[in-house]
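Tokens for chain A. Residues wanted.
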């Protein structure tokens, strides 16, 4: 059975606040994701397919994450 942590990792990306400066509007226009600011972090939430594609987009724009 798949654990909740693994599912959560496939449906969200956590980044430091300010990481999406200049990219947020394009990210929201290209992908079906929700972006929430939470203190000093930004949480991008979407389906596993959208999160993978959004992650690829971020990587192509020089943003790395674990």
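Reply:
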């Amino acid at each position: 059975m798949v654990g909740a942590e693994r599912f959560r990792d496939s449906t969200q990306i956590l980044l430091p606040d300010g990481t999406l400066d200049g990219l947020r509007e394009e990210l929201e226009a290209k992908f079906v994701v929700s972006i929430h600011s939470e203190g000093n972090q930004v949480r991008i939430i979407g389906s596993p397919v959208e999160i993978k594609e959004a992650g690829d987009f971020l990587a192509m724009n020089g943003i790395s994450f674990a």
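The chain has one domain: 4-60. The longest helix spans residues 48-60.
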